[in-house]
Specification:
mainly alpha, 3 strands, globular
Length: about 350
Amino acid sequence: MTTTLVPGRPRFGRGPLTLVWRPRLVAVDLGLLALVFLLVCLNVGQGDYPISLPDAAAVILGGGTDAEHFIVWDLRLPRSVVGLLVGAGFGMSGAIWQSITRNPLASPDLLGITAGASAGAVAVIVLGGTAFLGGTIGVPAAAMAGGLLTGMVIYLLAWRRGIEGFRLVLIGVAVNGILLALTNWMLVVGEIWDAQEATVWLNGSLNGRGWSDALPAAIALGAIGAVALASTFQLSALKLGDDTARALGVRVQLSQSVLLIASVLLAAMCVTAAGPIGFIAFVAPQVALRVARTAGPPLLASALTGAALVVGSDYVARVLLPVELPVGIVTTAIGGPFLMYLIIRTNRRLSR
């Protein structure tokens, strides 16, 4: 059954499920999906054995020779897939934070979540935890635990008969500063080799990532992302303010709690898989919002924008620069000027 409530936006509904047809948003999502696929093909085609863009696309889709299949699927594609998943997770996590707080500057890497995950990982590296836990398991587990613990602390400190966006941002910024200071202190007091290893990890890198890293990230992103996408109506209502959301029948505190937990889990998963790749969670939702021209950051478009930013930055860091760098350095170089632009634009708008 199709009923038109707004010109150009027919509603499709059957039972409790209702969808609204938004042609521009669908076109943006499809365009971003094609861009991500193009960037992945471009990235996997570069290396000691170069493969052209059409051939790389053919190999990914099941064609090519046995040698090309081995090079692409076994050696190069896992790195791009991890980058894709991490970018999507950061993008979706940032969209949730910015929607709930109604603040474009709010994102997991500015509010302490990734700093908490980083502090947990650095503590294991510098304080000798890898000797007991193992580097393969201990560092990711510590990063996940650090991110979740930080999210819990921020939530509890911000709770005053409910969660208010501005208070949540202020507490998150304060916690972020404390955790960054703690991480720097551990780097100073740690052994030089441990500090060097931790510094490389803190920059966020896709180097050496394989299918063993991609599989758990894909499962986590699929499960948590499905919960977030299923809460799209609640998230859209929360963007309008708590009172309006209640008037629309949304249980505000329950919806905020579920979405914030999903956001924290997504950010912690991303840091666990590739380290704290900076500014993706902040930049991707704002880029998606401007491209899609929606009232708030759209979840799926933010995820696809984040994936395109990470895979594209990895191509720049690995191929275009004279010396290969961790992907996090390139994303930080992109995100820093964007943050300055957003602050200047916000100040100008408030001063009018």
